[in-house]
């Protein structure tokens, strides 16, 4: 899936007077370079579940993996709507990103091999995955389901010069 160019809007209510909307290309760079993301899923009883994880940006989407019996995988079987966040834990500097979308399983072996290579390139040999039947396989952790989240809506929050940019995808 190619990186599509979203409609970009600056929300002036939450932005300094001199702020401008951040181009999606800059957000993609930050998403690709982030080391840690926070995933929010919805439990069967509608309560949110939030957990940190690692992931990669590829083919216009964020990708993450999880064991099939972990809480997030169980939640995704019932409700694919997710939010992924990343950024800096500071008030007056940095840039935070929020990506809303639906998590979809990736099972194609060619894509899984490319994603496994991307994980290892980004995080090192500690995060080496082999590819099994529609899953990542790790000798230490067993099988992991792989998901992609193509942005439906994304938000960028600039700090130290406040701005709020919204990106809307078709």
Description:
This protein is an alpha+beta fold and 170 residues long. Helix content is 19%, strand content 43%. It has one domain: Pnp Oxidase, Chain A. The protein has helices at 24-33, 71-78, 109-123; strands at 7-10, 37-42, 48-53, 56-58, 61-66, 81-86, 94-106, 130-131, 136-138, 142-159, 163-168. Strands 1, 2, 3, 4, 5, 6, 7, 8, 9, 10 and 11 form an eleven-stranded antiparallel sheet that branches. The longest helix is centred in the C-terminal third of the chain and has 15 residues, at 109-123.
The CATH topology annotation reads as Pnp Oxidase, Chain A
Number of strands: 11
**CATH classification, class level:** Mainly Beta
* Class derived from helix and strand content: alpha+beta
Q: Approximately how much helix is present in the residues?
A: 10-25%
CATH superfamily: Electron Transport, Fmn-binding Protein, Chain A
* Rg result: 17 Å
Q: How many domains make up the coordinates?
A: 1
**How much strand?**
35-45%
Largest sheet: 11 strands, antiparallel
CATH architectural grouping: Roll
- Cα end-to-end separation: 13 Å
- Mean pLDDT score: 95
Write a brief caption for the model.
This protein has 170 residues and is of the alpha+beta class. It has helices spanning 24-33, 71-78, 109-123; strands at 7-10, 37-42, 48-53, 56-58, 61-66, 81-86, 94-106, 130-131, 136-138, 142-159, 163-168.
């Amino acid at each position: 899936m190619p990186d599509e160019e979203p409609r970009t809007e600056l929300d002036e209510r939450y932005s300094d007077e001199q702020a401008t909307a951040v181009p999606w290309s800059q957000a993609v760079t930050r998403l690709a370079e982030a080391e840690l993301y926070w995933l929010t899923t919805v439990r069967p009883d509608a309560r949110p579940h939030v957990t940190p994880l690692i992931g990669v940006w590829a083919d216009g989407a964020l990708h993450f993996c999880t064991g099939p019996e972990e809480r997030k995988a169980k939640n995704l079987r019932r409700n694919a709507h997710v939010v992924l966040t990343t950024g800096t834990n500071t008030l007056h500097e940095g840039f935070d990103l929020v990506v809303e979308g639906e998590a979809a399983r990736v099972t194609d072996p060619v894509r899984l091999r490319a994603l496994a290579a991307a994980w290892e390139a980004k995080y090192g040999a500690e995060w080496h995955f082999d590819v099994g039947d529609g899953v990542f396989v790790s000798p230490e952790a067993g099988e992991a389901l792989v998901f992609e989240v193509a942005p439906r809506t994304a938000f960028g929050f600039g700090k130290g010069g406040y701005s709020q940019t919204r990106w809307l995808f078709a």
